[in-house]
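Below is how a single chain appears once it has passed through the pipeline. First comes the sequence as given, then the structure the pipeline wrote out for it. We keep one example in the README because the format questions we get most often are answered faster by looking than by reading.
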Amino acid sequence: MPATETSSLVSRELPGSRPLSGLTGEVWLARVIQLLPSEVERPWVWISPESDDAPAILGWGEAARFSASGPGGVERAWQDFRDWAHRASADPLALGSFPFSRRLPGDLVVPEVTLLRRARGRRTEVLATPGTPMPRPHSQRSQPDAGPLTLTDLPHPGAEQAWDEAVRAAVGALDADTAVQKVVLARSVELSASRPIDQAAVAAALATRFTGCWTFAHDGLVGSTPELLVDLRGGRFRSRVLAGTRKPAWSEELLDDPKEQREHQLAVASVTDVLAADGIPAQVNGPFLLRLPNVTHLATDITAEVGGRIDAARMVDLLHPTAAVCGTPREDASRIIDRIEGLDRGRFSGPVGWMSADGSGQWGIGLRCGQFSPGSQHIQVFAGAGIMPSSDPAKEWLETGAKMEAFLSVLS
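Resulting structure:
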């Protein structure tokens, strides 16, 4: 249900926005972040790779929030947003994130103020309630306790041993039931900061470093994901599937490693099989090596023409969770995760993205991210690994650590 009943939003052009129109998304964000009020702790952010020609978004506050859970939860939240948006004077976008577990509620949020560039080359709009003053630049976003940042790992005795036991238990479950082919396990580390961390600055730094990824901030979940769950605009569907990871020095191994190749095939099938069940033929391009600053992944791009028969929210509900973050078969893998993982993932590895009232949207999987607690001095950082019958707990521990580096590298 919406947090407010008013849907009176208007769109105005941001003064001086013409020089912003041709900037890449990460540079656009670095410029407009100076308009973010200094008291805003949790901004809303979405920045896509340049090749996507997709909206760039920075927002703050809440005009409305739409929550739902269970099967079909993303579409139900979108339908509530769509009905609300049709009463608005502007054409708002809602930013959303949903937990890994479909039993738990997720949200679509319309910011109170949204700075929105709908595509590169377009003007930057300000969407807000009538009478809201235009955002004004701040020379520097203030830190109340400015000074050197110290990060301390909160102790979790026996964490590596617990991971070893969980991986071995997952391998045992795979051996006991050969119908289950893959299980994805996650782990986390918790950090305490000596002063509040600027979440907007973290998002901007991630967007700058990982220009080929989708950068997001939603309710304190900040990250830059290399995995695109759903892009559905103009009747064309696209997804980027990742499974299989190496540090850059050993990336070529991914092309020949049977375990990584099989894990990747299962992840691709978890998307193409859903499309086929809905009578949608897909084009598959991959696998190829996706090289990022900290790791290399096996990646496959999947595209399909869907016309107006389906909206992006429904596609998210159909696809999540994919084999890349859960396993195969999905329900069997989910039960194994519930039994042995011992971690509340929250919205890590859940869908995160945006929706428009016409059903268009773009959603990544919430990876390479950290969850900030209120006050921005406590952060939980997550990573996961696909477990196959041949998995080695020590190697999977190193893989998850390498994935965490993406987020940890920009904390300062």
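The CA atoms of residues 179 and 329 lie 8 Å apart.

See the next section for the split statistics.
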